[in-house]
Design goal:
Blueprint lengths: L12 H10 L9 E4 L3 H13 L10 E4 L1 H13 L11 H15 L2 H7 L6 H22 L1 H8 L11 H12 L4 H10 L4 H9 L4 H9 L9 H13 L2 H10 L5 H6 L4 H4 L5
Parallel strand pairs: 1-2
Helix pairs in contact: 3-9, 4-6, 4-8, 7-8, 10-13
Length: about 270
Amino acid sequence: MIIYRASRLEALLDPLQTLLQAAPPQHLLAPHSVIAAHPGMQRWLSRELALQRGPRGIVANLRIELPSEWLDRLALELLGEEAVALRPYRRDVLRWRIHECLDALGDARVAAYLDDSGGSHAQRRFQLAERLARIYTRYLVYRPDWLRDWAAGRDVTRSGTFLAPLWKMLHRQIGLPHRGEMIARLLEGARSDLILIPCRSGRLNWPTVEAILRGRPAPFPVDEQTLEVAQRDYRKLSMETAQRTIRSSNRPQSSNALLKMKSPVTSVFARP
């Protein structure tokens, strides 16, 4: 993995342009994919790349995604229809479910806040639901481990707030996996080919793929011998095969078909 550093963000534009030119998409009409850290950088990057082409320059066929958007798309490509489960956890949907659950929560602090004389009850209820939805959607990205424990009835933070019981109630009502659980399924599954295939499709170099494999959480550690085999098979895996496999994952019964594949790449990490 190569990390480009600079004291000014503008200094990174030229290296980015060089990388985009050095690794064009396989298909002429396919867009370049770039991941931006936040919406502000997303807009800034699009504007600056256009300005580099002159006062009337435009930048087209460039897909600048946020990390959450990229993860959603990856989950949809690999998990197919199951990735639709991500929608109930979006903030604009989640806040209304929280809005309904506030009374059933039975927390004295929430009741006192809603009954406060400042502002109307309905306004305070909506504002609280919106704030809580914003907190939970951030935890989906940054603290999925907390959400996993809260859903199981364990408050590892020992904060004593109502966040843990409220999340347990929400998770039980929704009954579908959220983004953190989707990512865990992508990374923790016994099939590491589900990592190799999208990495090859995304043109990642081997040091980056190795870092991803080494960072896999338990219970599937990767030893050095397995990494050597994975590196050899990763080099054999063509871009066309990886992209074709991802496209086929959206077909009916694709997940079972993927697990039954007998190619070297899909059998390297198979474990009972």
